[in-house]
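Box S1 | Example of a co-folding query
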Amino acid sequence: MKHILITGGAGFIGSHLTAFLLNQGCQVTVLDNLQTGSLLNLDFCKHHPGFEFIRQDICEPIDLNVDEIYHLACPASPLHYQADPVKTTKTCVLGALNVLEMAKKNQCRILTASTSEVYGDPLVHPQVENDWGNVNPVGIRSCYDEGKRCAETLFMDYHRYYDVDVVIARIFNTYGPRMSLDDGRVIPNFIAQALKNEPLTLYGDGSQTRSLCYVDDMIRGLTGMMALAKPITGPFNVGNPDECTVKQIAETILSLTRSKSNMINKPLPQDDPMRRCPDITRFSQLTGFKPSVSLEAGLKRTIAYFEAKLCEYAGAS
Ligand code: UDP
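Box S1 (continued) | Returned holo structure for uridine-5'-diphosphate
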């Protein structure tokens, strides 16, 4: 039985990955400081014999014997990563060093969750892996963008200098159940607002684009990368190339929830990327990866989750 470490496993994507790997018969250790993750996300497996939880900050060194590492630990929504930007940079850089040291010692494969943010406000569209990006090094998103870029540098240098088997996954916008309601990102915000019949807050005029990947497709992508037979560093874009404007996302959510909400415009946050869409050719050609969940189907499942959550909160208060 493979023993797998997931850092950040109590978060949104991490908890889905935990479920998937436990179902595959793996032994899973989740390490998380619960800064943005929650044990509620892991409620489904707390009594599973193959599951273990360690509460620890990734900025502290770790020493475990494992066969594979998925490194996901880091706040990922702009609201959360900007709340304590110095801590975010530390998490990206010190966290990467700590997990890489562990991978070196264990001589095991390590996959890191990098991000489309390494492209900044992209000049090349759709984003291809050999584009070096257009990132503001001194803006409010820089703690995350530059932190993740530096983490990629560390992963490549541990690969070149210490022969560590690394995989860099550049994750594009992902959504689905277990996103937190107060996450500040577009999908939880719009769904919660629509369900409460409150105005949907469109930042700017809503013409900026995103390409949204349902979490099940993302998990297939990440585990597919980990399963590649030969050591291949990437970086690989992973996401769903189905691009739409933020306004279209709002309209789809309004229609699916049959909400009475309208839309209001709010200022566009500083350095908000205007266009984002992954070119997934590199990874698709290698593995045949293709997202299979449409935006409408994924949103229906996500709306059902948030509906249940809002009822829970209403019942509790
Ligand atoms: N956005 C919006 N209203 C919201 C939250 C987000 O219009 O209530 C926009 C945001 O400006 C960005 C896009 O939706 O253009 C995606 O934002 P999110 O915070 O989800 O993630 P990002 O892709 O920017 O990291």
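The domain at 3-172+215-239+278-292 is CATH 3.40.50.720 (Rossmann fold). The two ends are 44 Å apart (CA to CA).
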